[in-house]
Amino acid sequence: MTRLMTSTALTLGLAISAGAASAEAHMQSFETTSGVLTADSYRTALRAENLIGQDLYTIGAEYDEASWLDPNGYGEFDTEWEEIGEIEDIVISRDGSLIGLVVETGGWLDIGDEEVIVDFKDIRIVGDYGIDNYEVVTRMSQEMLEQMPEADTGYWD
């Protein structure tokens, strides 16, 4: 049941963010969604299981606020973007609101790495619509992720 709720919440949140004109409009749209996928939103939706395990890339020096807020601002994956982490999990609140992605970052061969929570406002899905034709990017740098508080098991207590 929890996996279904997480998948449903993620699907709705990602579908809405793809069509939002700004981060603020994205959040307002999410809060008023009925929970039913339309044909258009279903085409752009992703399930949680398709995101978990994906690499997270930074757009680095290419970041520009206007492009970030434009739903079509980063339409295609850029091979110059640097991989800075891996998506480990998705966090939702008890009221069903999307909080963010748990991202494993830093370390080497799983030694010394940390898990942090990246807010959905700092995440974009880029590429063609389809299960295997997308990448997950953030406007945050590796250094910014490393400065975030670690979301270890005590975080949830």
From TrEMBL:
Any Pfam family matching the protein: PRC
Residue ranges annotated for the PRC-barrel domain, each copy included: 82-129
InterPro entries to which the protein is assigned, alphabetical: PRC-brl_dom, PRC_barrel-like_sf
Record has Ribonucleoprotein as a keyword: no
Signal peptide range: 1-23
Keyword Signal attributed: yes
Source organism, top-level taxon: Bacteria
SUPFAM superfamilies: PRC-barrel domain
Protein name: PRC-barrel domain-containing protein
Keywords: Signal
